[in-house]
Amino acid sequence: MSDRLDRSWPPPTPYDLHRSLSVLGRGPYDPAFHAERDGTLWRATRTPQGAATLRLVPGDRIHATAWGPGAAWVLESLPALLGAADDPDAFAPRHRLVAEALRRHGGLRLIRTGLVLESLIPSILEQRVTTHEAYRAWRLLLRRFGEPAPGPGSGSPDLRGMPELYVMPEPRVFARIPSWEWHRAGVDGQRSSAVLRAVRLARRLEEATTMELPEAIARLRAVPGVGPWTAAETLQRSNGAPDAITVGDLHLPGIIGYALTGARGADDARMLELLAPYAGQRYRAARLILLTGRAPARRTPRMPRMDIARL
Questions:
Q1: From 58, 188, 251, 252, which residue has the greatest number of CB atoms within 10 Å?
Q2: Are 39 and 45 spatial neighbours (Cβ–Cβ below 8 Å)?
């Protein structure tokens, strides 16, 4: 049983709660994130003060309810999580497609969790594999080594609507996961080693939330196995960094290139050239472009799924 804390926040107009926070979900069955049909969002997280569960109900005011040792921390951080520190007015569209996306999705805000490890670890798991494989690994690791998310006590009306959530393991728990459990989750040695190096440096990595983007990227990339792709994917969520554009992605350059020019085959260099007019806001520009759904038809087979647990 956990004490309940509440807070409400007046969102800007327009504001899209689900689209803004959807980047925190790692697939439809993420044990740490759940979206309900009525727009309510649930999130399980590990804060500096301990585990917490957060429920967000949309409306004229976003109503937040939290449980657990970290409840006060998540409610104090609520405005940043919901995008209060984001400045969408700093963005100026340079393409008609982007301008239309901004008009349609003006409620998008870049959120800031203020937590590095909870985005870094699943980003490492997503390296060089299909999203299906990465989501499965994240799900298995949380359910096996995480802890049930705190919530209301038995008999509370809040308990009836609460999904089954799990909080990410503490760094010391990750450090003790044996090699065969990584294998069972489908995580190869390169990725598991990168996670283990990251959790040993957890305190130093969490300091990146207070840094400017270049320094934060350098801090994360100092960990062997964390490259520019992983650093950007992490800082987009932990820091709400509007210029943290993802490079090294298998699909993103081709989508950006096709959406903005109609040409296929763009690489990272071409993508960065096309996004140069959005310097300082390249991640936001990419998010808006992806929301248009404009992408080239697939000509090559999908990346094959590889379940190393069967080897």
A1: 252
A2: no
Residue 265, by phi and psi: left (phi above 0), alpha (psi -120 to 50) or beta? left
33: how many CB neighbours lie within 10 A of its CB? 21
Beta bridge partner(s), residue 9: 62
Tell me: the pLDDT tens digits for 63-83? 999 999 999 999 999 999 999
104 phi/psi in degrees, rounded to 5? -75, -30
H-run or E-run covering 7: strand 4-9
Contacts of 163 (CB under 8 A, 6+ apart): 34, 42
List the one residue out of 211, 203, 182 whose CA is nearest residue 194: 182
Taking alpha carbons only, the member of 229, 217, 218, 146 closest to residue 181 is 146
In whole angstroms, what is the distance from residue 185 CA to residue 164 CA?
20
User: Where do runs of H (alpha helix) occur along the chain?
Assistant: 17-21, 71-76, 78-82, 96-104, 117-125, 131-145, 157-161, 171-175, 179-184, 189-200, 202-206, 213-221, 228-238, 252-261, 268-274, 282-291
Containing 42, the helix (H) or strand (E) segment is strand 41-47
Dig out the tokens for 4 from the structure: 């309940």
Rounded-to-integer distance, Cα 253 and Cα 280, Å: 18
**Residue 40 tokens, joined:** 């309510």
Q: Which region holds residue 51: left if phi is over 0, alpha if psi is between -120 and 50, else beta?
A: beta
- Exposure of 235 in the CB half-sphere (CA atoms within 13 A): 30
CB atoms within 10 A of CB 210: 10
**Residue-wise pLDDT tens digits, 78-126:** 999 999 999 999 999 999 999 999 999 999 999 999 999 999 999 999 9
pTM of the model: 0.94
Q: How many CB atoms lie within 10 A of CB 50?
A: 14
Query: What crossing angle do the helices spanning 282-291 and 96-104 adopt, rounded to 10°?
Result: 80
| Token couple for 13 | 């107009």
Taking 80 as the threshold, does the pLDDT of residue 305 lie above it? no
CB-count burial class (<10 Å; 0-12, 13-18, 19+) for 302:
exposed
